[in-house]
Structure formats: structure tokens, C-alpha cells
């Protein structure tokens, strides 16, 4: 997780600022401070945000460390901020470090993740596919997936979602995708492919399609995948997403 890889020249400075502004709004901090620090690539600057109950998108019983472009953000209880203050970003980003700092509070890992953003999405032809936005189709798709795939938020609970299937009277859903609007500017994407339809390129197709829908709505697409998830990372690279950061989170007992 070297900071060397976090600066993303492929993502325009204007869109970097929009992404940073979205994070700033969600954390109720000043966006201009993030912008200024991001423009100075000579020294990574960490911003500390004390965990609060009145931030809609954040759980005060967690600690989250984010490396994004040329800055880093640490949202955590005050005691965790104090304990982490003198630890280098590359070390703090490790799951083991976060768990060690929160050991006495019963820390449990929520994982290490890669953050991607996109500006330009390749066009994928879908003339031979039926696109729907019905909850019943999402339920049918989820029934065709392993239970572990449905642990996260259901697709039909997202702000926008759709499924694809072949044309036909009783065609089963092949895949689905959707996104939540984060802080007015970013679309947080999700993709789900029926177990029997995997390794056929539908995941990449759906990621491109939902990212395109997201941009049509004036949002910057965000794709988050676990560190080491080769499939998720390959999908991102194939579609044209740009590696922009990392996120490590723990929750406390």
C-alpha cells in the first residue's frame, strides 16, 4: 500500500477535488483544506476526524483510515487518534496495525479495500439484453447467488438499480448492478452476477454499464473492492477505473 501508487494523474485535478469535497462533506470538514494538501504532492498530510454520532455516513464505533490521492484521513474515537498519531501512513494502513491499536477495545476487522474512480467508460453493446428495474428480478438474481454474496446491502436497497436478462418470456436474470449517491457527488457502485453466469464477462459489462448510468446522472463512479480481490481489480482495470486510494476499517466491541 505504498503512497507512491495513490497519486492518480489519469483522474483530472478537477475530479480529484470533487471526490475530496464529497468525503469532506460526509465528514463535516473543510474541503479547501483537503484540496490545498492534495495539490502539494511533496508531503502526504493526514487529517484527523474525531468519531461523532451526528455524521450520517459514519459509525462512531469504528475507526477508518483512508489514503486518497495525496492525502490521508483517519476517522476514529479520540483515543484511537492519539494512539495512531506517530505511526506512518503505510504502517497504519495495515489491518494488523489497526487491530493492534484497537485491541483493548475489542477491535474486529472490516477489511482492507481498494478505492477506484472513473472519468471515461468504454461503450458496451447491450442490444441483445433485456434491462429491468424491478425488485422481483433482484430477488430472483439473489436466489441464484451464493449466500455470502448477499451479506452486503441488497441491490434493490440502493438509490438506483437494474438487472439484465436475455429476451424471453421466462428468462432468468443474468446480473444486476446499482449505486448509492454518496455526498451528492459520488456514486458508490455494486455489481452482482448469477453464479452460473460468472467468468463470461458479465461482471465487467455491468460495472461499465452502471458507471455510465452514474455519470449520466452527473456523479463520479466509485468502485470499492477488497485488497487482493483479483477479479474485482481486473474488472476495474478493464473498464478504465483509476486506482486512487485504500481504506482500512475496524469496529469495536
TrEMBL record:
This is N-acetyltransferase domain-containing protein. It comes from the Bacteria. It comes from Enteractinococcus helveticum. InterPro entries: Acyl_CoA_acyltransferase.
